Amino acid sequence: MPYATQHADVATAELDSVLRGGPFHVALRAAIAARGLPLQRVQHHLSRHGVKVGVTSLSYWQQGARRPQRPESLRAVRALEEILDLPEESLIRLLAESDEHPAEQRPTGRSYRSLVEASGVLERLLAELDCPLDGGLHSLGHHERIRIGPRRELAGRESHHIVRAHRDGVDRFVAVHHGDPGAAPERMTVHALDNCRTGRTRWHHDTGVLVAELLFDTRLRAGDTFLFRYGVEDGTAGVSREYVRGFGPAGGQYVLQVRFDAGAVPVRCHRFTQHSAAAPRGGREELTLSGRHRSVHLVEPRVRSGYVGIGWDWE
User: Fold this and answer.
1) Based on the number of CB atoms within 10 Å of its own CB, is 259 exposed (0-12), middle (13-18) or buried (19 or more)?
2) Regarding beta strands 253-260 and 137-148, do their DSSP bridges make them parallel or antiparallel, or are they unpaired?
3) CATH number reported for the structural domain that contains residue 168 in this entry
4) pTM of the entire predicted model
5) Does residue 111 have a pLDDT over 70?
6) Please, which domain of life does this record's source organism belong to (predicted)?
7) Residue 233's closest CA among 160, 146, 157?
């Protein structure tokens, strides 16, 4: 049997298998691969069906990082069944089955692709606000409190910053919030709590990134220190399994605290580090969940470039 024919038969067999058992993202990825279509061509075919879906969204769907949920997205799934020559309702059925198992809606950690795409989006959003990556402030301390709600969702967070200006004239800070896969940043709200007020906001739906200006009522001189506090109300995504914070240049102390709702307590928690988006995770250490306050925390005396976070497992 010629190699190409044998390869096609194997791909078809794999597709038939995942169409029966799922999950949705694996079936979609297998269907696209079996038809040999690049995502740009899939997007083109969808547009001919009167459905607009971005290549980034299609990529997330086949990775399992996001799921089609909005009416326009469900229209796209039905159109994909026709474009990819699949049995009617095959992909829609797999979506419905995954709705019955919400804890399986996304992979355990953020993928390299999602972190890189979010980084590129962040640069564009900061450019829209005419704000450089270096906002003129060094971090001396950052205490971050995360709330996990009764649906096991990332309900919100609060950040308390201690900063020092390293140039004259600094009068703002740009807060960045990266929601869990499936988050809707346009539905999030930012609250200025101490020594600041909210300014302009920008967001990008596909990556779940939100940026917001926090304006100071003073212009700092080089060497001045400043304290401020703000919060972000989220609650727009599904089940949360971790919180990750990325750092550029080395900075001061970082404290991360995660508190869980009484009706959503995980079975175990751990901390981890990651040198870069492409690097494997390391520094895993089990964390003890406090019984009364249902919280865990980590302390980094002096942060370094890379990522640090807390993950947790549900029953």
Assistant:
1) middle
2) parallel
3) 2.60.40
4) 0.64
5) no
6) Bacteria
7) 157
